[in-house]
What we know:
This protein has helices at residues 6-21, 28-35, 39-46, 49-56, 75-88, 94-104, 108-127, 135-154, 164-180. Helices cover 66% and strands 0% of the residues. The longest helix is centred in the middle third of the chain and has 20 residues, at 108-127.
Amino acid sequence: MSGKSTRENIIDAARALFADRGYTATTIKDVAERAGCSPAMVMKLLGSKAELYSAAAPSLPSAADDPHVCEDESVGLRLVRNIVERRDADASEPWVMMPLLIHEAPDRDAAQAEARERYIGAISSKIGDTSEDRLPTQMVVSVLLGLATGLRTVGLLPVDALDSDELVRRYGAVVQSIIDGIDRP
């Protein structure tokens, strides 16, 4: 016996399947089978597939939590490096899943507000954006969403066309230019 609750087993199973197959190819039935319960139990405990993904998805990665952080590397480069390293490791990418989860949410307005607060809040604290509208943070989030979607969904900038370090250097410079433009009190 694992000592975990049924809910925890379901979340663990979903996390593994979403990471391996992606959102679209993972079914509630697959998650239930791996967790050793019925699809009805998955739905009862976690609700919709979007809610299941939200519970199983990794939280927004932090630039400060990156194990490969170099003290002299800018925040912009670290934010980009995190996305590129997840691509290279074929790890789950929360930036790509956010729009899908919003689109599939029963209450899109609430899901959008929650995602905006989660991402804007996390990134604004990393980049020191204390502006009322957090416009610089919104721009950084938009650029990172574009990078993650381009890499993972569209297949842009593959490693054979642009090596990962060069991609981090070039795209990180774009993100850092936005950060450097923040008016600080």
